[in-house]
Design brief:
The chain has five helices and two strands. The protein is mainly alpha-helical and 181 residues long. A two-stranded antiparallel ribbon has the order 1-2. Helix 1 packs antiparallel against helix 5. The longest helix is centred in the first third of the chain and has 37 residues. It is elongated, with a radius of gyration of 21 Å. Keywords: Membrane, Transmembrane, Transmembrane helix.
Length: 181
């Protein structure tokens, strides 16, 4: 009974859980600002040509799909993170090694989507250029990145580095104990 699947992998399961929870948290943080940017460009598409020219939103038709892709990617991160937490919990409760393998793949998929989100948002920021406000006919839309989005954009690469570092350390200590035995 003491040869359970998760006894030797306890640290790995913890690292996966922490990483998935961090990604879920970062995804929720990024959602607020990304949805505001999407809302601004969706509104800008409905403006007349004169209103778009005044607001510097002539490219609303191409900016909206870019921010929408980032928002969809972010939604996938949150959904997959929730699924990963659920699968990991069930795997630990049922002592299932196959569930842990699925969570490993899911975690690396989530981190890859996080890096893709960072790239999409950086491309969006480059396309925005010096525009920080869309002067709409009724409301002005702030296009500055808010601190939660900036935190999320920095968090995904750090989470990827953290899990990679954990994996390297685990492999290094695992190989050194094999050589001693």
């Amino acid at each position: 009974m003491d040869k359970k699947v998760f006894r030797p992998l306890r640290n790995e399961a913890k690292a996966l859980l922490i990483t998935i929870c961090v990604c879920a948290f970062l995804g929720v943080l990024a959602t607020f600002d990304l949805s505001e940017h999407h809302r601004a460009w969706r509104r800008a598409e409905t403006w007349t040509e004169e209103q778009r020219r005044v607001a510097s939103a002539e490219d609303a038709g191409s900016m909206r799909p870019l921010i929408l892709a980032a928002l969809i990617n972010n939604t996938l991160i949150v959904a997959l993170s929730s699924a990963g937490i659920l699968i990991l919990g069930i795997s630990v409760a049922s002592d299932s090694g196959s569930g842990l393998s699925a969570v490993k793949v899911l975690t690396w998929t989530i981190l890859s989507l996080g890096i893709l989100l960072v790239l999409l948002v950086l491309l969006y920021r480059l396309r925005l250029g010096s525009r920080f406000v869309l002067k709409g006919p009724i409301y002005d839309y702030n296009l500055r990145f808010q601190p939660p989005l900036v935190f999320a954009l920095g968090g995904y690469p750090l989470a990827t580095l953290g899990l990679t570092f954990n994996r390297v350390l685990r492999n290094r200590t695992g190989s050194s104990t094999k050589n001693k035995g």
